[in-house]
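ASSEMBLY PREDICTION REQUEST
Request ID: AP-0331
Submitted by: J.K., bench scientist
Number of chains: two
Total residues: 564
Priority: normal
Notes: Please return the full assembly, not individual chains.
Input sequences:
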Amino acid sequence: MSTAALSNPFKAEFDPNSQEFSLAGVVRPRSADEIAASISMLREAIDGVRGTFYINVKRLVQMNNTAFHAFARVLLDACRRRSDLRFVVVTSSVVGWTERMFGHLNKIEPQVTVEVYDSKFYPGQSFVEDTSFIPILRTQTKMTWRHERTILPRHGMRPGISMADICCGIGDFAMLVRKEFQPARIVALDHSKASLAYARDVASGFGITDIEYTYGDASEMLLEDNQFDFVTCRHSLQIFNQPDVLLKELYRICKPGGRVYITNEKNSHCLGEPRSKSIQWTYNEVAKLFSHFEMDVELGPKSRRYLADAGFDDIRVESFMVTNLDGDPQDFADIITAWENVYAGEMAVKRGDSREFIERFRQGFRDHIFAALHPKGYAGWPIWAASGRKPS
Amino acid sequence: MAVAEQERAEAPFEPLLQFEMEMGTFLSDWQHCDQLSTFMARMISHNRADPVRHSNFFSSALNELLEVSFRGASADGQIGCAVFRQGSTERVRLTFPCPPGQRQFYREAVSKTRRGNAYARYLDAISTDFAPSREAVLLDLAINFDAEIHLDESDPPSITLVVDLPLEGIVS
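STATUS: Completed
Returned structure:
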């Protein structure tokens, strides 16, 4: 892979294996001469490829007209010289102007098309975006918050900090943190417009205007480097097919000396008594089911390794068990019911599981609910909370 | 635009932020365009529904305007930029000293952003110009940012580009 790094933070790269030319960062030159090396790289890259050539601008934060015209000109000239080539500009739905600007090239040369990439990157999103899931998400946060409100200070949460909650979902965690710890600034980011709309409505209903909800892709955030004292990302690495990519972004936006806090599960360790065997079988199958969809709901105890590999130090890991004894047992039962509906009712069906399998699969959830509501029963859902410090 | 008409048009816009700078200082470093647009965008976007993305959009548009003034203005006098808001629209008033010979150019360039063939002109600029003209930059704002652009020449030798940007609707 060849690289031409220009004035920080703009970067141009070409990967011949994927025939992809990438532009990232802020590119606002005074003249095209300042980006001549990148222009040449693009021209040479096009000369050496066949079939489809990709121009990846999903990490392009800013580009002025001077740069756009210079790059566009190379593409348009190439279209005229190479009728055998197809050009695909890969944009992000987060940076809307790139889709608009590059989309015009198609009007000039139909060989150039624009694809918005970020409907594919988050395999679990469609399962949790259903608005019927919102009450359960709220209940889950309510039950985990009982534990996390005492855990968070041990991981660096304190009043007056600047924090970001990445993959904030419906925004309830950000609301709770705001009330309990009074951070100076909260940015809450998610890739679900429906969840963010809900979050904004709730905040508005409470007259809260100081949580900055933003639409974004956690793996390609618009947020700048080294901004936040504390970055949280809860229950999300485990449903992301590339957790290392996401952690790299969390690391990037965290200030040196700040901390990144993550929570994840190990679903096969969900437990209950009575009927423990049926429960255990089902949750082992849950882990396999998620794995089928490129998600690792066994990630919790791997948090230390992931944080270390991402470059963090002073790593702290602890676990806690959400149980049917945390408040109303019916809350716990409601969560399991929602899991059954999504995991057995949607995901297993989508995987193509047999009716017999799905029935046995459902039974484990029902037994978990039975244990939760049994007057002498015990039902648990284990979660790992971990954080690491970005070296100063 | 007549003074009375201008006042009527601007009455509902609330002031948000403004800066003034000696033109010579502004022209001393190209990076001022990037730095000022980034800073102002961040400041005025904080209470938009999606502050991060609104700021990104607004910075793009404002940077282009600042670059226009950088390329076309004389070094004497001051540059001033004020941002106002009305509902989902931000109004930028960018005032800079304009050499007499360029006033007609700006009149025509602004006028072309409102003509029916604006998009054809924009596509033509992309397909033929290696470096964008200031006219192409104003067309870009009209087409990619849904900007409405006017010219205020009431304070010579300066001119003022008045640009309404309905970005909240685009971002959300």
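REVIEWER COMMENTS: The longest strand of chain A covers residues 52-63.
SIGN-OFF: pending second reviewer
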